Amino acid sequence: MTTTAPYHHGNLRAELLAAAERALRDRGADALSLRALARELAVSHAAPAKHFADRQALLDALAIEGFARLTHAFQVIVERADEPVRERIRALVAGYLAFAQENPALLALMFAHKGEPDASVEVIAAGRQAMAMTVGLVAEGQAAGEIAAGDPHRIATVAFATVHGIATLGAGGLLEGEPTAVIAEHALVLLWDGIAVGR
Amino acid sequence: MTTTAPYHHGNLRAELLAAAERALRDRGADALSLRALARELAVSHAAPAKHFADRQALLDALAIEGFARLTHAFQVIVERADEPVRERIRALVAGYLAFAQENPALLALMFAHKGEPDASVEVIAAGRQAMAMTVGLVAEGQAAGEIAAGDPHRIATVAFATVHGIATLGAGGLLEGEPTAVIAEHALVLLWDGIAVGR
DNA sequence: ACCATATGTTGTCAACGTCTACTTCACGAT
DNA sequence: ATCGTGAAGTAGACGTTGACAACATATGGT
């Protein structure tokens, strides 16, 4: 009755991704090894190559998956048409910051095209898609008379960059322990009211 | 007259850092190998270990050096007491974005404490020092009546995060090619005036 | 003159990514 | 029914790397 292990795993690709994300969370991207993943899944060291051309391809897949999750979460929030725009913006910010805090290594991976000349086009596309979710909300806010006129894409970009900056600084320990959510709330107030005197 | 190579290199540490920064710029942090650096400097493969305990120590040193350069550049700008605050802020932003554009891989390294649990304390300290340079300028702006009241540290943090976010998104190719300087100028205007309607 | 120490060298090891050749297996055409 | 073809997994090898240990050489203080 010994159930012999089948020659084919059957679900390797998905399980590799899952194990990789765990490893990423626990030990960071640098410590992620294809061979270790293969061992963990009781599969030969060369098996992962059948699903991911090389190590970078696996990391790219993780990044894309991360962006996809983010995009979906954003969409759900944006579509709450009954909520005021500012409330939804707040929810977007909170969602992003929570994601960043729970997945710091993954977040770094998603935006880590640093020096590599040939950054994956697909990863970048996935990232742009996630960012694009916020543009419509800004436009909606303008239509509702809550947000001043101006290219909504530009406004959304600046806002996203601000939150993203807060998230990465927080992950890097440069915010002296202050919660990113608190900083972000200040940012929202500053951006909403402006910081100039008088006017 | 053959000048025999001396047993001791004499300046290995500094040259390692220089070569490492070149390699970082050209091929990215992942492709940086201690052995390759040793080869480049015509030194044995174990020589770098005498100056940097491990690979990460070298990368940390690079990051600290990067922050030091940034801090110095910031200080020079902040100390131009004759220039109006807003002009100096503009210069700070331009300086940071230029640094980011010229050293994308180094910038990534400087803030890349991602998943690694034991991020170098010294790197973080160097980063905080750089960020701290901007606080005084905000306070000065408040004293001059150009910037509204509020914790200057908080305002500076939000502003820095915004610019940092723009820089990293730009480096990641997520700004659809628009120059980071243009986005940052919009950000400054938005932050200065606020985006709320009416008020 | 001497020696402690910093700096470099050589040799070794385990781990890793990647490549090639081979095996197993599911499945559709015949 | 069977055949063969391609996808999925295995086994082994190669070259590179980071790290370590043992040894060699230079340097500077006493």
Automatic annotation (TrEMBL), chains A, B:
Alphabetical list of InterPro entries matching this protein: Homeodomain-like_sf, HTH-type_TetR-like_transc_reg, HTH_TetR, MT1864/Rv1816-like_C, Tet_transcr_reg_TetR-rel_C_sf
A Pfam family assignment: TetR_C_33
Superkingdom of source: Bacteria
Domain HTH tetR-type: 10-70
Keyword NADP tagged: no
Regions recorded as binding DNA: 33-52
Keywords from the UniProt entry: DNA-binding, Transcription, Transcription regulation
Record-given protein name: TetR/AcrR family transcriptional regulator
Organism: Microbacterium panaciterrae
